[in-house]
Amino acid sequence: MVVSSCASDTGEPTMEYVPPPDGPPAASSEFLAFVDGREYAAWTCELAPHPAREPSPHGMNRICQNSIATAARDGSGPWPVGAASVKEQYDGGGNVFAFEISLKERSGSGPEAWRFWRGQGTRVTNDAVGASFCSNCHEGADRDFVFTVVR
Questions:
Q1: Vertex 128, ends 102 and 5: CA angle to 5°?
Q2: Where are the beta strands (DSSP E) in 7-145?
Q3: For the chain, what percentages of helix, strand and coil (3-state, to nearest 5) are there?
Q4: Does the residue 145 lie in any domain?
Q5: Considering Cα of 32, then 45, then 83, then 85, what sign does the dihedral take?
Q6: pLDDT tens digits, one per residue of 107-136
Q7: Which of 27, 66, 93, 137 has the most CB atoms lying inside 10 A of its own CB?
Q8: Average pLDDT of the chain?
Q9: What CATH number is attached to the domain comprising 12?
């Protein structure tokens, strides 16, 4: 599986984020084990994969959100530090072939508060805080760079 994402030039997590018990980890070196172990499957997840919602280019997918995101889902304004979601992408045979992860690492409401990962295969290919590749689309979300709130 290749994992790619969007993060700072150094790929280092910011100091404000402390991984909650249900993750995700702060270091991209731990990301593959996190998704390979499907640790996020215990989060609040959509019941089944579905076609992408506008304006997503991600195809058939399913989203899971951690306990911090779930606890704040009925709020307004910026998401709390530690809120995270995993998007599984599915191929035509119904198999997961890629992951996108959004992680609120810092307080605030700008793109620099978010780390975005995207990947497939066996390595992390992107890991960026506030990267325009991800944030240019996510800035159009109704609430602080998050399009889907899992209920």
A1: 60
A2: 44-45, 61-65, 84-90, 96-104, 114-120, 126-129
A3: 20, 30, 55
A4: no
A5: positive
A6: 998 899 998 888 777 767 778 887 677 788
A7: 66
A8: 83
A9: 3.50.70
